[in-house]
């Protein structure tokens, strides 16, 4: 890889993105960009009534991630410094296409492209896949009260949306390296060897 890479960890809710990005940042001495979650004023309302709150929620995530991406470009990418993030801005489109309907979905898609098309995208994506049982168990383990409302049906759709999105990214952006991690089998939290293998692979990709 000729330049300092921009790395993103992705996967459905509860896959372990923040956990893995934080562990890798510490191991490889990289700055880490984390999703803004707790300060989000709409998540609670959204999980209680998705149809009423999806546009506000998706716009909030999009504006926050746009600002974070601008800052990431200024602080790291333009200065040739590697950085790891616990999301790819493309997740806005994955969620928006699932939660929005009709003209709001069309408008949101347009705004997404206007804001992000000219910004740098990650060179490497670590995509954590996991099945419904694993994800539901991890969401419960994390214990955020507003996430108690998350239904298995919504999660199953997101699992499939993520698979489709990664397959489509691989075709549209062939220079992006996508490393798929089987989050059901590979346990980077409990198993030191599993984590070491991921860190080693990433180091190789970065050189
Ligand atoms: N491989 C793993 N084994 C066991 N627990 C995990 C694993 N990965 C994540 N967790 C736990 O699952 C929960 C969700 O992880 P988190 O990193 O917040 O996911 P995400 O950022 O993808 O939503 C946390 O409580 C975390 O400690
Ligand atoms: N509808 C959307 N929900 C989102 C988006 N990004 C995150 N989220 C939700 C999912 C979780 O409840 C919480 C934290 O996300 P993690 O994946 O880090 O667990 O926020 C989004 O763009 N749209």
Overview of this protein structure:
A five-stranded parallel beta sheet has the order 2-3-1-4-5, with helices on both faces. By secondary structure, it is of the alpha/beta class. The relative contact order is 0.20. It is globular and about 45 Å long. It is built from eight helices and five strands. Helix 4 packs across helix 7. Bound molecules: adenosine-5'-diphosphate and the ligand Nc1nc2c(ncn2[C@H]2C[C@H](O)[C@@H](COP(=O)(O)O)O2)c(=O)[nH]1. The site of adenosine-5'-diphosphate has 16 residues, from helix 1 and helix 6.
Supply Rg.
Answer: 17 Å
Largest sheet data: 5 strands, parallel
Low-confidence stretches: none
Beta-strand fraction estimate: 5-15%
Distinct bound molecules: adenosine-5'-diphosphate, ligand LCKSPGMD
Continuous helix count: 8
Q: Write the H/E string, N to C.
A: EHEHHEHHEHHEH
DSSP summary, beta strand count: 5
Rough shape?
globular
Percentage of residues assigned to helices: 55-70%
Pfam family, one: dNK
Protein name: Deoxyguanosine kinase
GO molecular function, one term: kinase activity
Keywords: Kinase, Transferase
Main features:
207 residues, alpha/beta, five-stranded parallel sheet, binds adenosine-5'-diphosphate, binds ligand LCKSPGMD, P-loop_NTPase, kinase activity
Short recap of the structure:
This is Deoxyguanosine kinase. Keywords: Kinase, Transferase. This protein starts with 5 loop residues before the first strand and ends with a helix.
């Amino acid at each position: 890889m000729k330049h300092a890479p921009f790395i993103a960890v992705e996967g459905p809710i509860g896959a372990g993105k923040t956990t893995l990005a934080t562990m890798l940042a510490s191991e490889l001495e990289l700055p880490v960009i984390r999703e803004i979650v707790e300060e989000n004023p709409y998540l609670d309302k959204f999980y209680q009534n998705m149809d009423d709150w999806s546009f506000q929620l998706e716009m909030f995530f999009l504006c926050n991630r746009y600002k974070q991406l601008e800052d990431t470009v200024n602080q790291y990418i333009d200065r040739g410094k590697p950085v790891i993030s616990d999301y790819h801005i493309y997740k806005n489109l994955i969620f928006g296409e699932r939660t929005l309907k009709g003209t709001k979905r069309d408008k949101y898609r347009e705004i997404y492209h206007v804001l992000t098309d000219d910004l740098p995208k990650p060179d490497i994506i670590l995509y954590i896949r996991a099945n419904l049982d694993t994800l539901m168990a991890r969401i419960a383990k994390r214990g955020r009260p507003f996430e108690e409302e998350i239904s298995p049906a919504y999660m199953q759709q997101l699992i499939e949306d993520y698979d489709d999105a990664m397959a489509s990214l691989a075709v549209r952006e062939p220079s992006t390296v996508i490393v798929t991690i089987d989050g059901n089998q590979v346990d980077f939290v409990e198993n030191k060897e599993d984590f070491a293998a991921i860190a080693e692979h990433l180091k190789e990709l970065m050189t």
